[in-house]
Structure formats: C-alpha cells, structure tokens
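Q: How would the structure tokens look for this protein?
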Amino acid sequence: MPEIRPFRALRYDPETVGDAGQVMAPPYDVIGEDLHRALLARHPRNAVRLDLPAGEPGEDPDERYRRAARTLTAWRSDGTLRKDPRPSVYVYQQTYRVPGTGVERTQRGFFARLRIEPFGSGSSVLPHERTLSGPKEDRYRLLRATGINTSPVVGLYEDATGTAAAALAAITADGPVTDITDDDGVRHRLWVVADEGEGSPARVLIAAAAAGPVFIADGHHRYETAVRYRDERRTAS
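A: Here is the predicted structure in token form.
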C-alpha cells in the first residue's frame, strides 16, 4: 500500500507578494515562449522563475537551474516563501466550465507527501504512460539544484466508500486560505488542514488514499526523476 503523510509546505506569504493570482503559473510543460515572457513581466516573484527558469544566450546550460536555486534561497530569506509550522495536507479545489458549454464542474483533491518507489511488480504507485529522456533530464537538473518539488505529481485513488469525498466536501464548506482565478477562468482554492492526530480530517483523507494503489494521472517525468534523485542521494550518503 502507498505510504502517504502530511508535510510542511513552502507557501507564498500574501503579505509579501500581495495578489496571489499574480505569482501563480500553469504547469511548466504548457508554457510557451510568449506566455513565459508574460509571466516574468507579471510579477517579479512569479512561480515560473522557479519551475521553468529561462536560459541566457551563451551561458552554461546548468546556469538556469542554479539561478532557480538562488532565487529559491532569496525568496525563503526575504519572506516571499514561508514553511508552514505544522505538518498538514492541503485540500485543493478547481471549478471550471467545460469548453464550448455552459456546464460548470468542480474537482477536489489534496496535496500530501508520498513515499516514492520504483515502478514494477508489487509497486503501489502505478504509471500509465511512457516517459521521454529530455523532460526527465530537465526536471532532474532542476530538482538537483533546488532540492524541492516545484510542481506536484497528480495521482488518482479509488474512494469506493465515499469517505474521502465526504471529508473533502466538509473541509471546502469553510473559507479557503487562497482563492484565485487564472487566465482561463479556472477558479483555484486551497485549504490548509493540519494533522491533528487519529480521526482528524487530515488522517481520514490520508487513510482513504492509502487504502489501495495510486495511479499517476500526470507527472510521470517528475516522478521518475524523484526516484532517480532519491537513489543517487542514497548512494552518495
């Protein structure tokens, strides 16, 4: 069974950055050159500077990853990013309209820490697509330089009893800590749910997700990169 735990996230401090919508960015692999320039211009602390650092003509290919690491260090020092004081799970909700229709849909999930394990027989983390060496090398160099996950791996799990769905509905009935709408009109909301021990909402969500295998829906390259990074750190220690 997968091992899932709460964690202490690094989050933007709203008192430092102001409007959180100005510092958000889409997943790195859907950002083209025009959008990349727009995000850089939108706010000096936009997340694209960490997740998709730009290279400069004639510089060492690894310099852009080192630049992201320096940016991360600076943002942690000046209060742009702060680590939460207590291990938590982070409930996330998206509300969007189905393209070409008037139908509005909502999907919910949560961020947590997952113990990584190689794919293969007996694994509790299962893939569904092949990966490419180029994107994996890019994500590996960024992970090696920064030491953090700059974007998540998205996993699916079976909630046959509806336990997780009920817990998520109860949590999202209260006001979120973050509520922003992106350029595509998708509304993103976030709730911080501290781990308060056995029977708490955080533990209910974790137990539901850990009851069976996790299927990777998006982030195969990042996941395989994390396995490589873990193995190399073990070898070096």
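The chain is about 35% helix and 20% strand.

Residues 220-236 form the longest helix (17 residues).

Upvote if useful.
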